[in-house]
Hints:
By secondary structure, this protein is of the alpha/beta class. The chain has a domain at 112-352. Helices cover 20% and strands 18% of the residues. A five-stranded parallel beta sheet has the order 1-2-3-4-5. Helix 1 runs antiparallel to helix 3. The longest helix has 14 residues, at 121-134. The protein is globular, with a radius of gyration of 21 Å. Bound molecules: zinc ion.
Amino acid sequence: MIKHLPHNIGNLNNLEYFVCISNLLEGLPGDISRCQNLIGLYLSRNRIKSVPEQLIKCKELRELYLDYNELVTIPESFVRFCKLNIISLSGNKLLYLPHIPFISCPRMLIENNDYLTYIPYSVGCQQSVLTYSNQASWCAMSQPVVENTLNGIWSLRVQECGNESLSELPSNCISIRLSLSGKVLVMPRQLKRVYQNNNFAIPSLFELSLRNVYTRVWKEKMELSLKTPSNIQTHFSQLMCPIENNDTRLNQEELEQLLPKEVLVLLSRGPVAYCSNPACSSPIFHDAAVEIIPKDVQRRSWDEDEPELYKVYASRFYCSAYCRQTYFNNTSLQWERQLLNSALNFHILNVS
Ligand SMILES: [Zn+2]
């Protein structure tokens, strides 16, 4: 029946594993960030509505169980956990997932999120690569790894996701309504403007400045390719740690003199996504061109003979309509387009 954790929980600085499953917790004190030796945090089946951003300071964290709570989103900063092996988010009220893949490539569980209507493409690919590499023996016996990897985004466990639609949009969020299904896709809170079909839309000057300063000062980089044995290349993002280079990096003091505080906050929080055009990979803050890729995927439930069809949507963000166009006109990516367009060409995964 525990409702609150003590606010000085950080005094337990040797704490390694904290288990508080099936209680009545509604949140976590930010002070938990002082538990620098925390390895496992098990908070399944509570009433947690949000988790503090500071949790990222627990650098040793390997297992994070937040399933069956009331989370609407998780802090974007969580993608920067360096040692995280597993993050369980099943059975929440998630509206979207971070669009930047996790540095440590943890296993992510997301089924039973009624309002989750889409998956970020890069995160989905990352998860799939992980899934298939974990099942290497199974892979060897069936299709080639490459094929599995390419189909990967669609093999995520999304059972019982996107079943219900929102009665009202959360405040400060913009959304995309899909014309065919009428489904509403809630965009990450930081985004102020998205465009789907406008080929002439350009980012605002403010957005361009943010990108420019971020790239120069933070020097963070995304790598966007995965080479597979049979000469096929797929693109999924891998976040690299910031490059520490004191010669070119401005220090905090210099920055504070140069930039308004609100801008500094935005920059230190980092981008919401990176451009999906591998040749660009520019950081995206407020303003993005969005591509929504629909696909029917097939699931066979244990008690039924007839496979069930799920409509899954994946999202890709680009820094501009121009980048989206360039990416699509790139002929070397023909195979990827074919794959994405073969909407009903799914594979049956035979468990036996
Ligand atoms: Zn771009």
